[in-house]
Amino acid sequence: MILYPAIDLKDGACVRLLRGEMDAATVFNDDPAGQAEAFARAGARWLHLVDLNGAFAGRPVNGAAVEAILSRVSVPVQLGGGVRDMGGVEGWLARGVARVILGTVAVRDPALVRAAARAFPGRVAVGVDARGGRVAVEGWAETTELSALDIARRFEDAGVAALIYTDIERDGAMQGPNVEATAALARAVSIPVIASGGVSSLDDLRALRDCGAALDGAISGRALYDGRIDLAQAIALLEGAA
Length: 242
Description:
CATH class: Alpha Beta
Number of domains: 1
Radius of gyration: 16 Å
């Protein structure tokens, strides 16, 4: 499993939200590129970036911060938030993003996701963000009637690189991930699944690693910033050295 340190961007700063609420943002670093460098120096093999403003606006907003990160680190970066058309996918991939995450558009325009996955094999992921088992879109401001499994199965044969499954109620709450739901999703589809939301300790990572489903990785944010998880120890745990 891969550990993906999260860099959530709001107004050009590195923040963490509580359950996706923009007015419950805690600023952890006003230099996202410096934070990315620190994660890379500590051994991160991937970084997970989210343009939070962009997720609400429906277009990239923190582009300058993303480009600064891309210019400072050599580890691959996956990016979500505000990418709603093929031009956005193409633009970010051309600028050096390794993988683009499509969330809202996966609900609104699944044909676009399929087209993007065909055009850029291995470089398009789908964000599956669920509240109470139902998928939320538009920066998590709107909850649909679709289940996480509905979305996952929609793209089973589309060639997407990964599903990033987030339990919104766990996100930023430091209460542990939804291991059961994440494992169930991973067992139901052949697409690699990355766990997100609530990962707050090495025990949480161990639970995901040992959940009985072959997860591709896990995303952690707040726990890395406040020291509850040591990045080097976490990487060793997930990669089999601890």
